[in-house]
Amino acid sequence: MDALWAFALMVGLLTLTPGLDTALILRTAALGNRRRAWGVVLGIQSGTLVWGVLTSLGITALLTASHLAYETLRWAGAAYLVWMGGRLLWGTWRRDAVDEYPEPTGSDTEDKTGKGTDDTLLGGWRQGLATNLLNPKMGAFYVAVLPQFIPADASHLTAGVLLAGVHILLAVIWACALITLAQVFRDRLQRPSARRVLDRLTGTVIAAFGLRLALGE
Question: Where does the record locate the signal sequence feature (predicted)?
Answer without folding.
Answer: none
